[in-house]
Structure formats: structure tokens, C-alpha cells
Amino acid sequence: MDGFEAIAASAVPLTGGYGGETYAVSAAGEDAVLRLYVRHPERAVVDMALLRLVRGLLPVPRVLDAMPEPDLEGAPPYVLTERLPGINLERYLETAGDDERGKVGEQLGELLVRLSGMPFLRYGEFSGPDLEIRSFESDLLRWFHTKVEDLGLARDQVESLTGVIDRIGDLEATGADRICLVHSDFNPKNLLVDPETAELTGLIDWEFAHAGSPYTDLGNVLRFCTDPVLGSAVLRVVRAGAPGLGDRLEERGRAADLWALFDLAARSGQNPVTTAAHDLIRRIADTGDLSGGRPDLDVVH
């Protein structure tokens, strides 16, 4: 407990996410990141296993120390990792030029290709140090109806979204028959970049990772993207590097992202992302179209 108290004493909350459980600290003579697992203590062992699984394949931090189970005095589990270099990609993209955004988009595509090539045998959430898989809800329409009350939609909007979901069934029938590692929060706030070279240096925050669709992370990174330079670079690299994923990549990604969008939109008002997700769901419902008025980023058809 003494070691944990020494680490926690220098903790400074990190911005970017909305969980409030991640801190910048100094430990063992180097900058580090302390992640506490107060809300989901069982996730500590899973995150440790995932970081071991992908280390050397994806830009993830080394684990410096960990307490994967709560101690007898009630301190929550924690994982202490190195602090990777670079700045938050979301902030970097605000001022990056076309060349830099295109370079970043290509690297995002490369990471998506690598994730799509890490196979699992069935869909589900990870559990325990051996990443056992527990099945979860697999019917999008049923999932939608569990969120309808919190979404606050009019009857015609519910009917419109039901029609969108029905049409997604045809899209899924011709999609990739592949289950892979899904980061499930693959967006600029969880990526780091070297501002001098535009090289991606980190993919962080694996708390929602699971075994699922190769289109999920693609849909996540393109969810609020309106930049054709970045978006088309992502899609171009994924198309070339993972041809087994088929055509209509942008549409497939948006379809896979509906799971997360419904969940986020049902919590509208909690933070800017949940509010933006709710606005997007309303636009999809009002237009009856999966794009919801978002621009076509796929310049190669």
C-alpha cells in the first residue's frame, strides 16, 4: 500500500477522456500514467492482458506496475504504464495541414488493418487474464429498443431508424465473415502523435476493447469526421491492406458504429460526445439515411 500511496500522491488528472480515472504521475524516475479501476475493477486484468497481447504490433505503453485486484484496505486495482511521447491527435488535427492530415489518415488505416488481422473465434467481451470471451447482445434492433426510452425520439423517428436497421441487414449479409480485436474507442482523443513528424506514437485507453466486427473501429474513427483528406486516406489504406473486408467500407463502418452511437446518444448531455451522438442519431432518423447528412469521405469507389 505504501508504494501505491507514493504514486497516487503525485497524480495529476489527464484530460481528453471522460472517465476521470486516469492520471499523469512520476514513478521509478520516469513519467507514467496511472489508471485506477474504481467503476469496473474487473477490467484491470483484462487491460493488462490486452497490452501484453498487442505490444510490438500496435503502439501501446509498457506496463510498469500493477495491482490487478483490490487490496484488503479497499484501494482499487490500478495499472501503471509508461507515458508515451506525443500530443493528443484531436488537438493536433485542429491546425495540421493537408499533407500532415493525409499522413495521419494513412497511419490510422494501417492500425485498423492490423487490428482486423488479430482474429478471435466468437464475438464477446473479454474476461480475466486469459481474455476469455463472454457473449453479448448480437441483435442491433433489440439493442436499439433497449435505448429508445432514453433517446427521447418521436414515433416517426423510431420507425425511420427501424427501417435503417432493417436495411443494414442486407449490408451485413455481404460483409466480411471475420471476428477480430476491436479497440472500440478508436478515435483521435485516444491516439497520440508526434507534432514534429506527424507519426502516431500511441493508441491508449483499451477499456472497451472486445472481440467483434472489423468495421467497428473504422466507423468509430469516421463517426464525426468531416475531413475528406483524413477520411479518404483511412479508407484507401484499409481497402488496399485488408481486401477481404469488401466494398462500401464507409457505409459498413457507419452501420457497425450504430451500436456505440445508440449507447452514447442515450446518455446525451453527459459530455460533448454523447450530445453530438444524439444529434447524429436524430439526423439519421430525420433523413432515413445512415449518413445522417455526413459528407462522403470515400473518394475512391
By CATH, the topology of the largest domain is Aminoglycoside 3'-phosphotransferase, Chain: A, domain 2
Could you state the order of secondary-structure elements as H and E? HEEEHEEEHHEEHHEEEEHHHH
What count of structural domains?
2
- In the CATH hierarchy, the architecture of the largest domain is Alpha-Beta Complex
Q: Structural class from helices and strands?
A: alpha+beta
Mean pLDDT equals 91
- Contiguous low-pLDDT stretches (5 residues minimum) are none
Structure explained in plain terms:
This protein has 301 residues and is of the alpha+beta class. It has two domains: 2-82, 2-Layer Sandwich (Phosphorylase Kinase, domain 1); 87-287, Aminoglycoside phosphotransferase (APH), C-terminal lobe (Aminoglycoside 3'-phosphotransferase, Chain: A, domain 2). It is 43% helix and 16% strand. The strands form three sheets. The protein has a five-stranded antiparallel sheet with strand order 1-2-3-5-4, with helices on both faces. A four-stranded antiparallel sheet has the order 8-7-12-9. It has a three-stranded antiparallel sheet with strand order 6-10-11. A hairpin with a 2-residue loop joins strand 2 (22-27) and strand 3 (30-36). Helix 5 crosses helix 9 and helix 6 (155-173) packs across helix 10 (272-287). The longest helix is centred in the middle third of the chain and has 19 residues, at 98-116. The radius of gyration is 20 Å and the shape is globular.
